[in-house]
Amino acid sequence: MASHFLLLGILAIVCSTALASDPSPLQDFCVADLTNPVLVNGLVCKNPKIVQAKDFSFSGLNLAGNTTNAVGSQVTPVFVAQLAGLNTLGISMARIDFAPGGINPPHTHPRASEILTVLHGTLNVGFVTSNPENRLIMKVLQTGDVFVFPQGLIHFQQNIGPTNAVAIAGLGSQNPGVITIANAVFGSNPKITSDLLAKAFQVNPYVINLIQSRF
Ligand SMILES: *[C@@H]1O[C@H](CO)[C@@H](O)[C@H](O)[C@H]1NC(C)=O
């Protein structure tokens, strides 16, 4: 009996470490019923008999995002919230538009690796490895170049070309999540106290107050 529990324990550890992305589907598809109030890991399935082609489709990625904002970029997501048929499939995508000089600020996706293709323009992209190295891995990408951002790591893109830039990202989750570092740290609600952040960032609290006032 005890050995059974040991075996189950080992199995649980092996399985949990092997599942780095979304769980595998248990049926052909599970189109999300976005109106169902039941909360599960993922979203409740629509009755497969009433599913239509439009449940597997999204239109509009031909349209440029509006980059007139503080960072000069716009992400147009095609996640499960926009394309219900992605539910349980472990993939999604996004279009990212950049004005000249625009950035997609340092952020991380808690549930997905990301593979980015530059459709147009020149992007400086990078990610930082975890502690203690915190090594910056960075590259300039031209049209047609592809770059991968490993799951969970902080990454960014910057348009360093003279024109607008456009990229398409594939992500390994139906709902990758986004944590924008500046917004999470300096723009949380309620705020993280400035004395705590002052110690974390090794600056005077007034510097923290100044940054917090911008979010
Ligand atoms: C883009 O966003 C800016 C700022 O919110 C707004 O003033 C402008 O009208 C928008 N442009 C378009 C084409 O929607």
Automatic annotation (TrEMBL):
It is found in: Secreted, Extracellular space, Apoplast. SUPFAM superfamilies: RmlC-like cupins. Keywords: Apoplast, Disulfide bond, Manganese, Metal-binding, Secreted, Signal. Residues 1-20 form the signal peptide. Disulfide bonds join C30-C45. This is Germin-like protein. SMART domains: Cupin_1. It comes from the Eukaryota. Residues 59-209 form the Cupin type-1 domain. Its main location: secreted. CDD domains: cupin_OxOx. It comes from Ilex paraguariensis (yerba mate). GO terms for molecular function: manganese ion binding. Oxalate binds at N104, H109, E114. Mn(2+) binds at H107, H109, E114, H155. GO terms for cellular component: apoplast. Belongs to the germin family.
